[in-house]
Specification:
Blueprint (H helix, E strand, L loop, with lengths): L1 H7 L4 H19 L8 H11 L5 H38 L58 H7 L2 H46 L24 H19 L6 H27 L1
């Protein structure tokens, strides 16, 4: 990402290439052996190839790929919004409004130690203040800190190889969230369908209509001593199906957060182990 930060400071790619190659040559002179030493030429060649700045054609191809990813991300976000609204209505109907499709906070990752008055362009990028309900925010909101297509600096960041990988990670996690919502809403609807259909049939019967193969026993709504629907029997039957939704069906409602909980715990543990290894090796 350091290359992406450097690129974002130069409006002219030719100027960036000139300054970048100058820094590479200075780094080679300080840290790499001369060609006359054994193995020096091959190592120097490999190092130069690894640090070669991207060409204009490469950046233009990345820009086209970025626009494609943007289109897919927008479509995926619109689908997720519809599915999330449906999921919230389902859990609210079953008296489980506390279940949410996304975690409100991300995991605790350390992205660097800054001195007072310094600003990290990675942590506080042009999109860090935008409130976009991205699924990646429940893992690490910093990944989306440069996802702003109205900012020239953010666009320069995103068309670099590392920036493009971040956009792909955001899209892939959003697609995973969409698949989880599809499975959850379909499963919940299958569980709730009989009870919801019964409640709608009761409303139809109340208006004087009937359907073939109804779930509710229509005859139980009438009595021999009164004409029309008996209000007491109607209230008892409606209360029974509503209570079943709140008590019996609610215990079987799919919790997306429960699916993610184990993975979040495992990811946090692996991160702590990695940080411990890094501290032991480099500090």
């Amino acid at each position: 990402m350091s290359i992406a930060l450097a690129e974002s400071k130069f409006g002219d790619p030719a100027q960036f290439r000139k300054c970048y190659l100058k820094e590479v040559q200075a780094h080679e002179a300080r840290h790499w052996p001369q060609p006359e030493q054994e193995g020096g030429a091959s190592e120097k060649k490999q190092f130069a190839a690894r640090l070669q700045p991207p060409s204009l054609l490469f950046l233009q191809c990345n820009a086209v790929e970025l626009l494609r990813l943007r289109s897919e991300l927008m479509n995926c976000l619109s689908e997720c919004v519809a599915l999330q609204n449906l999921y919230r209505r389902q859990v609210k109907t079953c008296n489980r409004a506390s279940l949410q499709p996304l975690y409100s906070e991300g995991l605790a990752f350390e992205h660097g130690l800054l001195e007072e008055g310094e600003l990290s362009f990675l942590d506080d990028g042009p999109a860090s203040m935008l409130e976009i309900e991205l699924a990646i925010n429940e893992i690490d909101p910093v990944i989306a800190s440069n996802l702003n297509f109205r900012s020239a600096d953010a666009f320069k960041m995103m068309i670099t190889p590392s920036g493009l990988e971040e956009v792909r990670a955001i899209l892939h996690y959003q697609m995973m969230q969409k698949q989880a919502l599809i499975v959850a809403t379909r499963t919940n609807q299958i569980i709730m369908d009989t009870h919801l259909r019964a409640l709608q049939e009761l409303e139809l019967v109340k208006r004087g209509h009937a359907l073939p193969n109804m779930v509710i026993p229509v005859s139980a709504l009438y009595t021999k001593i009164s004409e029309g629907i008996d209000s007491t029997n109607f209230g008892k039957m409606k209360s029974r199906y509503t209570t079943n939704l709140s008590n019996n069906v609610s215990s079987c409602i799919v919790s997306i957060g429960a699916w993610k909980s184990l993975s979040r715990t495992s990811l946090s543990k692996k991160y702590q182990e990695m940080m411990a290894i890094c501290e032991k090796s480099y500090w």
